[in-house]
Amino acid sequence: MKTWKLLSFAAFILFMSSCEQDPYPLEVEYFDKYWIDLDGSNSHTPFDEIEFDIRINTTDPDPEDQFITEWELSYFVNDTYGGLLDGAENIGTNTLNVNAVIGIEFLNFPGPGTFQPGDRIEFRFWAIDNHGTQVERYYDYFLE
After folding, report:
1. Which residues contact 18 (CB under 8 A, 6 or more apart)?
2. pLDDT band at residue 3, thresholds of 50, 70 and 90?
3. Structure pTM?
4. Ramachandran region of residue 7, left (φ > 0), alpha (ψ -120 to 50) or beta?
5. What is the distance between the alpha carbons of residues 5 and 119, in angstroms, rounded to a whole number?
6. If exposure means fewest CB atoms within 10 Å of the residue's CB, which of 59, 89, 112, 144 is most exposed?
7. Does the pLDDT at position 103 exceed 70?
């Protein structure tokens, strides 16, 4: 019985010493979206703009241990990839600020045709740090 307890304790100690601390998460300080009704229609049309104001922070107490390495802002129309709006790779920052103003009429419509009422435009923001920790945020804009 004593041997079993000793072996269990030794296995526990070996297991605990091999566990690494989980990486620190990326903090989304804010992910603000503003609809700008440029045509004065009081409805979501292709002639409007969306403004994004985004701030992502690392949370590791040592700023040299964690840094954001890549980010993207892209869009999909009715679940079809539309394109990359902005982004950067091979960066090394602890705080990422993204300010983007997107004119809906200037987006490429994936496939034949144009934007129609009922179309869903999904904006996707994604960032990753040097440990592989990722953060994603989405915003759906429906044309009326």
Report:
1. none
2. low
3. 0.84
4. alpha
5. 64
6. 112
7. yes
Write the Ramachandran bin of 85: left for phi over 0, alpha for psi from -120 to 50, otherwise beta.
alpha
Show Cβ contacts of residue 43 under 8 Å, excluding neighbours closer than 6 positions. Answer: 37, 144
Output the CA torsion sign for 24, 133, 102, 104.
negative
What's the Cα-to-Cα distance from 25 to each of 49, 114, 129, 132, rounded to whole Å? Answer: 31, 40, 9, 10
Give yes or no for a contact between 110 and 82, defined as CB atoms under 8 angstroms apart. Answer: yes
Q: Which two tokens stand for residue 14?
A: 């070996």
pLDDT tens-digit series, residues 68-84: 999 999 999 999 999 99
Mean pLDDT of 86-92: 96
Q: CA-to-CA distance for 20 and 132, rounded, in angstroms?
A: 15
Burial 37-55 (b: 16+ CB within 10 A, else e): eeeeeeebbbebebebebe
What does the block give as tokens for 54?
A: 């985004």
